[in-house]
Amino acid sequence: MAAVTEKQQNSPIRKSSDQLKEKVSHRNGGVPGDLGEQEDYGLSGVLEKEQSDILKSSRNVCELLEKIREETEALEKQVVNVCSSGPPKVAAALSAAVEVRYSLDELLQREQRISNRLQQHLQGTKQWMEDLGQTCNHVDFIERSMKYLKCLHHIEELSAAVQQSLMINSVWDAIKGVENMAALDCGLNQSQCSHLCDFLRKTLCFWHNIIKDRLTSDFEKVLAQLQWPIITPNQSVTTPANYQELSSQLEGLLLQLLALQTSDDLISQRVSASTQGAPPGSSSTLSPAAPSLCLPIQIMLQPLSKRFRYHFYGNRQTNSIHKPEWYLTQVLKWMENSATFMEEKIQPVFDRSGQTISAKVALCQGLVCLVQEKVASDASRMLYDDGLFCHLVEEVLQFEKDLRSHHSYPAMLPALLHILLDDAFLQKWLAVERKMAVEKMDAMLSAEGAWTSQYKDISDMDELKAPECAETFMTLLQVITERYRALPSPAAQLRFFGLQKELVDDFRIRLTQVMKEESRCPLGVRYCAILNAVNYISTILRDWGDNVFFLQLQHAVVSLGQQEVLGSLEMTEVGRLASLEGSLFDGLLSLLDRLKGDMLGRLLHFLMRDTAEKAQPYCQERWLSIPPPQDQSAMSLSSSACPMMLCVRDRLLNLHQVLSVSLFQLAWQGLAEKLDNFIYQEVILSNHFSDGGAAQLQFDMTRNLFPLFGHYCRRPENFFKHVKEACIILCLKVGSAILLKDLLKRSEQEATDFEDPSPESALNELGVFCLAPCDVLILLNLKALLPGI
């Protein structure tokens, strides 16, 4: 049996079977293990079965081999298909990548070859480029030289044309040639050919000056025949025989001078650009915003300028630093005297030429330039003399006012006030204003009639009863306002406004000091005058807060953020200023109102102390022993009340005479309120009343005390609500008082029925609106002969 088994193992069939297994196993290297194991098991089963059959029959060996070969091939195909189902995509991608890499390498090689060829080509053409560049530069130089020569030739042609036109007296053609030169100069403004530009400008200035001198000479001759300049208002102006010819010549010369204006402006710009470093205070820096004057006006100003410099410069007696009004007044007279000539003879020509120039304003502008230079020179010499500087400021302000109002000088053109905006001049002006204001305050407070009203004998004009010192002080502030109102700078105006606030606060402190000295006698004339002064100043400042000028200043404060004026205001207060809900004087008004309230409080306290002393007998009146009214023949004022009533009457009359209307109204209303509380507390709540005592109290109040205040209002009882309503309760009939007391007690115990009226409605029916039910119950308990409930 063992031999058979060995034979089987060594047999070809067994060998082929093992080879087949190894082959299948080798090809299944990339196949999952489950598939390979299943195929091994199936093949082993087949072989074992077949071997058993072979052992039984050897005749089927060939068929078995053929069958195994076919199955082996089928299995190989199956294994190959499974193993090659994924990798072909990866292989294709790898193949494409390799091809791209080959293409890239090829392109890089081509690029390198082309770059090498290009470098070789550039090396070969470098010399050509250098030669070509030199040729182009030479051509460009020749071209620029040709243009330069053409431009130079054109300038010479224009110059020759101007010369030829002047030789044949063709002024218009000469002016046209000069205009062409000026246009060429503007075109060459950015050119770097400095010698060419300099030659052109010198040529332009040469011919411009020649034409200008010729026209100026002819224009001056015509003006002289028309008797220009007009120096005095009574200057005799006779119409010359050839007036029509002169008018025609004047018009022609004016038109020619206006046509020459373009080149003149250009030359003036060149000159001003070359003199930008002029020293401060020179005429070129006085009014930089002012436009230049036209040529005809410049020529017409020359004789006036000569006269001005002759009289107001040098050692002439008219050149007095103490009398700036001399040259200021003279210039205003020249403006006035020349106005008719400018409007009738010069302005029509300007209008026909299409110019928008006002001949009158232009002449005034030229004269203002003369005055500006003089004022700037004089002001620098007056900085250390307060009197001279103050006088100069006053004259400058008056000149500015006359210039703007009488000569229609435009607000956009600067005049003399712009000079005073210089920091040194402005600081000096502020210092002088402060110094003089303080001196005037000292004088006005120490004057003999400082605390008396100027209008005390005129009742219609003395409502505020302001003392003379207060009116003088507010007049001083108004004058300061009028002085700085015309300043063209809001920032400068705000500096003066800050000075005004300082002065008001200083004056308030002075009033407070005097008030403290007089506080021992609040009913004195001086104390009441101080109170009137405080009220007068606060009233005027409130009116100024609604003034257009101060509203404009308020807008400037918010927009410029002036810390000197805003101070330490909170954002809400700044917002109120911006929305015009507040005013610039709110801070001062709060201080003045506080002082006024303090003084009124002192006054009322003194009045009540005096009245309370006089009312002591009345407070101790025996109200229970007064008989009822029916037992008296006629009711009269209680004798104990007479001193109190007389005191109240006299004080009211006195206050009415010495206090302003608004202050007196506050005073008597305050006195009425305090009297109401005093009588209610000290007379009514401190005593018990019989029916006669209650009726007497009501008579004293309604027929004597209330009418004292009836001179100043229609219903004085409305200011004595406690006393009036207490009298109503005390004068109730016994039955009504019992019912009311019962109702009030039940309301306190919260046991009222829904049908019972409320205590408030019951009291309102009686005319009691101010007193509370508990107070009414106390008053009912003060009523004598009322049985307890």
UniProtKB/TrEMBL annotation:
<dbReference type="GO" id="GO:0006888">
    <property type="term" value="P:endoplasmic reticulum to Golgi vesicle-mediated transport"/>
</dbReference>
<comment type="similarity">
    <text>Belongs to the RINT1 family.</text>
</comment>
<dbReference type="InterPro" id="IPR007528">
    <property type="entry name" value="RINT1_Tip20"/>
</dbReference>
<feature type="compositionally biased region" description="Basic and acidic residues">
    <location>
        <begin position="15"/>
        <end position="25"/>
    </location>
</feature>
<dbReference type="Pfam" id="PF04437">
    <property type="entry name" value="RINT1_TIP1"/>
</dbReference>
<feature type="region of interest" description="Disordered">
    <location>
        <begin position="1"/>
        <end position="40"/>
    </location>
</feature>
<protein>
    <recommendedName>
        <fullName>RAD50-interacting protein 1</fullName>
    </recommendedName>
</protein>
<dbReference type="GO" id="GO:0006890">
    <property type="term" value="P:retrograde vesicle-mediated transport, Golgi to endoplasmic reticulum"/>
</dbReference>
<dbReference type="InterPro" id="IPR042044">
    <property type="entry name" value="EXOC6PINT-1/Sec15/Tip20_C_dom2"/>
</dbReference>
<dbReference type="GO" id="GO:0060628">
    <property type="term" value="P:regulation of ER to Golgi vesicle-mediated transport"/>
</dbReference>
<feature type="compositionally biased region" description="Polar residues">
    <location>
        <begin position="1"/>
        <end position="14"/>
    </location>
</feature>
<dbReference type="GO" id="GO:0070939">
    <property type="term" value="C:Dsl1/NZR complex"/>
</dbReference>
